[in-house]
Design goal:
Shape: globular
Number of domains: 1
Structural class: alpha/beta
Low-confidence stretches: none
Oligomer: single chain
Order of helices and strands: EHEHEEHEHEEEEHHEHE
CATH superfamily: Acetylglutamate kinase-like
CATH topology: Carbamate kinase
Number of helices: 7
Largest sheet: 9 strands, mixed
Number of strands: 11
Radius of gyration: 17 Å
Strand order of the largest sheet: 4-3-5-2-1-6-10-11-9
């Protein structure tokens, strides 16, 4: 069971091992569809900087920039078939991110929940942990490998399996708000919030099953704005005021 790390000094990371959850939409940049390679490169540079301070980092990437099983583009497709297509989209994003990282000389492994040996290793928990111990960035693709589960659930599951100290949920906003800040300008941002409050208020952070899994195992989540340069490092270093922390107590 993962435990919360002790507060670190200014020179030390706050976490030893982290799981970064990036949505597929985050890789679109200003585009309406697909992958912006400049965004992928910028994300890769931040991941490299985090790895350079000794933090072991794994990544779960979504596929919503290409295909989402519950989206309108899925039409009246069978839900299982649509979800499997979404899993393939996450594999494409994972390979793009791997390429961006390796161009920066960062050793990387893509591990897939579905068997695609030409592109990725099959997910094996002990092997994933060993990669992290060898200073490799591990990118988890294809969600959990099962339909009806989102990549948020995959992030929570993989974080627990590798014994991560925290899930870093990279978003387009600077934390969790009482309402959608785009629709409701007077919405207030939380610095800290409990899992129970997220569930009770039905806040759109991660899906309920992912939140429940984190709550049951006391795995903290930090929701932050990935579009602000350097924010991943700030969160890893434990800087106050960056994003919203979800945990057992405020």
């Amino acid at each position: 069971m993962a435990t919360e790390s002790k507060p670190a000094s200014a020179a030390e990371p706050a976490f030893r091992r982290v799981l970064l959850k990036i949505s597929g939409e985050a890789l679109m940049g200003a585009q309406n569809y697909g992958i912006d390679v400049n965004v992928a490169r910028a994300v890769a540079e931040e991941i490299k900087n985090v790895r350079a301070v000794g933090v072991e980092i794994a990544v779960v990437v979504g596929g919503g920039n290409i295909f989402r099983g519950v989206s309108k583009s899925a039409g009246n497709m069978d839900r299982s078939s649509a979800d499997y297509i979404g899993m393939l989209a996450t594999v494409m994003n994972a390979v793009v991110l791997q390429d961006a990282l390796e161009k920066l000389n960062v050793f990387t492994r893509v591990m897939s929940a579905i068997d695609i040996p030409q592109l990725a290793e099959s997910f094996i928990r002990r092997r994933a942990i060993r990669h992290l111990e060898k200073s490799r960035v591990v990118i988890f693709a294809a969600g959990t490998g099962n339909p009806y589960f989102t990549t948020d659930s995959a992030a929570a599951l993989r974080a627990l399996e590798i014994k991560a100290d925290v899930i870093l949920k990279a978003t387009k906003v600077d934390g969790i708000y009482s309402a959608d800040p785009v629709i409701e300008p007077k919405a207030t941002r939380f610095d800290c919030i409990t899992y129970q409050e997220v569930l009770e208020q039905q806040l759109k952070v991660m899906d309920a099953s992912a939140i429940s899994l984190c709550m049951d195992n006391k795995l903290p989540i930090v929701v932050f704005n990935m579009r602000t340069e350097g924010n991943i490092m700030r969160v890893v270093m434990g800087e106050r005021g960056v994003g919203t922390r979800v945990s057992v107590e405020r």
